Amino acid sequence: MTFAAWLSVASICLLGAVSPGPSLAMVLRHTLEGSRWQGMLAALSHGAGVGLYALLVVLGLGHLLAEQPLVFSLLTYAGAAYLAWLGWKALSAAGSGQLQTPQGLGEGSLLAAIRDGFLVAFLNPKIAIFFVALFAQFLQPGQALEGKLILAATAWMIDTGWYLLVAYGLSHSLVLPWLQRHALWINRITGVLLLLLALRVVTL
């Protein structure tokens, strides 16, 4: 693979990662209600979910998902239900008028960040379809495994790196206090956004 081809893949992956959506809302919520580490754990596990789909696609399994509408639909509806559940949790937190603090968060919250990060990615099979369309332009018959792994690693590192930056930036001492002061409205907006995204997933 030439450097120009790799740069094209990296640019498209970056554009996909920075697009606002449920992943951003999820990382925001864990950073706001938890801590920098909780947000970064969510970012790492989300990147793992994206990287898993990218790896499956370069190994040829992405086409199987695209050709199995039942499996695709089941994953899609499961993802929509999970987004709706996250949205309800955000609205419930807003309704309570309370904001968790890092001191009040334990191992369970860290595990929840890992779980939410991975499942928001894994329960979105459209990520696999995106990679099928993207990688098809750069995968050639008989291509060496090394080139395929470079494609998958690029998608994984860019997604992980972007959301790590998001979690780090949101938890900055100049940003987090402002977010915490407006936590009530942020939770409300995040909750409504997640519910709307869940509805969009099942209607498209």
From TrEMBL:
InterPro entries: LeuE-type
Membrane topology: Multi-pass membrane protein
Subcellular location: Cell membrane
Keyword terms, alphabetized: Cell membrane, Membrane, Transmembrane, Transmembrane helix
Gene Ontology CC terms: plasma membrane
Membrane-traversing stretches: 41-62, 69-88, 118-137, 149-170, 182-202
Transmembrane as UniProt keyword: yes
GO molecular function, one term: amino acid transmembrane transporter activity
Principal location: membrane
Protein name: Threonine/homoserine/homoserine lactone efflux protein
One Pfam family, short name: LysE
Cross-referenced PANTHER family: AMINO ACID EFFLUX PERMEASE RHTB FAMILY (PTHR30086:SF16), ARGININE EXPORTER PROTEIN ARGO (PTHR30086)
